[in-house]
Design a protein that fits this description.
4 domains, six-stranded mixed beta sheet, elongated, alpha/beta
Length: about 625
């Protein structure tokens, strides 16, 4: 059943059109990815669907009664609100119903007859509504979402206004998931999550019964979650069935078909144009209007021909290039017995690592585990408590930090690029165009740049130098998919050493030949990409589970042995008691036999002895049965 439909939607900002023809339908339970280059209107579309922004033309229909949840990019809450207050705001309606239930319960004790019946009916309705909204599962839902998004008890008590942008986004995501709307509108939900939290969110969304519209540049995330892709290109939308990889393959196939049709049509057009030119030439030479009429007729047919557009095979994206510096020493990074703590929190504990020339190493781990700290120690920005972290010999370093700041926010892009190098303005503008800073863009102030623009400018500054070592901290965070793919292609061809921190699993798979996990202060190496790391972690978990199972079996065996020994000890005592009783009975039977032999005519006494002997024999048989069991 169609629950969300958009048709012919147009959107302007002032006189500038940002969306020209957006059309798609979303069925019940579908998870849909929205992709496109930065600035193509993906976030604007979500705001229009949410009702935050209007639109000029077209149709937008949402099934009656459906609730929507939107992951805000710049959330605002009162300064005094804690994280737990923001999360609990998801239960506002549930809490209101709970308060009404409590109030009704207090009233019921003082009412009688018809008034009591009315209030009981109302209480029953309110209780059913409370249950249908998940009121009784409130604490369980809160616990589940907080555990999945790594929202700890201490974190819950922090003021929301003091959180970083990424932390705020995580909290708002948690709030939206707790609201459990019919339609989720998520703008880059995985941007600030670590790998464990991303995998948890993927599983949550796969099991989510409602609709989810997800704007994302995370190709791995899209592959794992969505079953439909909406691409926005040149302000027009196009829908593809399947996940991101299926969309890529289908788009490539359609482009190839369009190119073949375009080439075939161009051959026909040129042939017709040639015929028209010949007919006009003959008409002029022979002064014959008949040829002019035929030429005119063919021109009309040509003008009415529905033209196949030439497909745009390559769109604007960054064009990264760098001059390779001289060869570095074979040992590029040497870390020995490294230790670093902040107060009581130990981030790095006796870590050991050696990275050799031309290795491509991904450094991964949970948020806050110390990855960026390790890089800052390596670069000399931060000091360690003990141990060594050194770069090798002949290193020519390029470093891209996670949070990019420039020395002067008032500088233009052009000034910022030229501040450390000698280059003419013309050459600088030509070079910056490779990083998608065209025309007047180069005069924008660095303080007004978006995250993506800052990343591109910093990359431009880095890649202009001669380098043999790249250290990149979350390099894909603000790049669109085309720019990520361009960066990947450059890094694949780069002949130096690459060390990068990333949560982009697609990127790790394409670049890394080694994964280093920072876990509980230790550096653990895996000789492969993310899929290899994932497989090894699964094997480790399975081995740990098998070991735990074996330990439990061993403990069970030991317990049984102990119990058996106890039982044996008890059985030994029982056997001795039985032997004693049997011996006493046998001794008594022998005594009776001797007594009977001495009696001749004392029949009464003999009968008594025979009766006793019979009884004792019965007892002896029972004891013997027990003894030989």
């Amino acid at each position: 059943m169609i629950e969300l439909a958009v048709k012919g939607l147009q959107k302007y900002y002032g006189a500038n059109m940002v969306l020209r023809d957006i059309a798609f339908e979303v069925q019940n339970g579908e998870k849909v990815g929205i992709v496109g280059s930065n600035g193509c209107g993906k976030s604007t579309l979500l705001k229009v669907i949410m009702g935050i922004e209007g639109y000029e033309q077209g149709m937008l229909a949402v099934k009656r009664g459906h609730t929507l949840g939107y992951l805000e990019q710049m959330p605002n809450y009162d300064d005094g609100e804690r994280v737990i207050d923001v999360l609990n705001s998801a239960f506002k309606r549930v809490d209101e119903i709970y308060e009404e239930m409590r109030e009704l319960e207090m009233q019921l004790s003082s009412l009688q007859d018809s008034e009591l019946e009315k209030k009981l009916d109302r209480y029953s309705q309110v209780q059913m509504l409370y249950e249908s909204l998940g009121g009784y599962d409130k604490d369980e839902k809160l616990s589940k979402v907080c555990a999945g998004l790594k929202i700890s008890e201490n974190f819950k008590e922090r003021l929301f206004s003091e959180l970083s942008g990424g932390e705020k986004t995580t909290v708002i995501l948690g709030k939206i998931l707790l609201q459990n709307p019919d339609i989720l509108l998520l703008d880059e939900p995985s941007n600030h999550l670590d790998l464990e939290a991303m995998e948890w969110l993927e599983e949550y969304l796969r099991l989510y019964k409602g609709i989810a519209l997800i704007v994302s540049h995370d190709r791995y995330f899209l592959d794992n979650v969505v079953s439909k892709i909406i691409e926005i290109e040149d302000m027009v939308s196009k829908t593809y069935d399947g996940n991101y990889t299926a969309y890529q393959n289908e788009k490539e196939r359609q482009l190839q078909l369009q190119m073949e049709k375009y080439i075939e049509q161009q051959k026909k057009v040129k042939a017709i144009e040639k015929s028209i030119a010949q007919l006009r030439d003959w008409a002029i030479r022979a002064d014959n209007n008949k040829f002019f009429r035929r030429a005119a007729s063919m021109q009309i047919r040509l003008d009415k021909m529905e033209r196949v557009d030439k497909p745009v095979v390559e769109r604007d994206s960054i064009k990264i290039s760098a001059s390779l510096g001289g060869r570095s020493g074979n040992e590029v990074v040497i870390i020995k017995e490294l230790y670093k703590s902040f107060g009581d929190k130990v981030l790095i504990k006796n870590a050991e690592l050696l990275i050799r020339n031309r290795e491509r190493v991904a450094l991964i781990g949970t948020n806050g585990c110390g990855k960026s700290t390790l890089i800052r120690i390596l670069l000399g920005i931060e000091s360690s408590d003990s141990g060594t972290a050194l770069l090798g010999s002949s290193i020519q370093l390029g470093y891209l930090p996670q949070n990019i700041h420039f020395s002067n926010d008032q500088n233009t892009i052009l000034d910022c690029f030229r501040e450390d190098i000698v280059i003419t303005e013309g050459k600088a503008r030509e070079y910056l165009a490779k990083y998608m800073f065209f025309g007047e863009d180069v005069f924008k102030r660095t303080g007004s740049l978006s995250g993506g623009e800052r990343s591109r400018l910093m990359l431009a500054k880095l890649m202009y130098k001669e380098l043999n070592l790249l250290i990149l901290d979350e390099p894909t965070n603000h790049l669109d998919i085309d720019s990520r793919e361009e960066l990947e292609e450059f890094l694949k061809d780069f002949q130096g050493t690459i060390i990068f921190v990333s949560h982009d699993r697609y990127f790790i798979n394409n670049i890394a030949d080694r994964v280093i996990e920072l876990s509980e202060g230790r550096l653990i190496a895996y000789a492969g990409n993310y899929e290899y790391f994932k497989e090894k972690k699964l094997q480790e978990r399975n081995m740990a589970a098998e070991k735990l199972k074996a330990d439990m079996v061993e403990k069970s065996v030991q317990y049984k042995k102990t119990q058996t020994n106890i039982l044996k000890s008890n059985d030994s005592k029982k056997v001795k008691d039985l032997e004693k009783q049997i011996s006493e009975l046998e001794h008594r039977l022998k005594t009776i036999d001797r007594e009977i032999e001495t009696l001749f005519d004392e029949y009464e006494k003999i009968n008594e002895l025979y009766s006793e002997k019979s009884s004792l024999n019965s007892q002896l048989e029972k004891l013997m049965e027990l003894y030989f069991q």
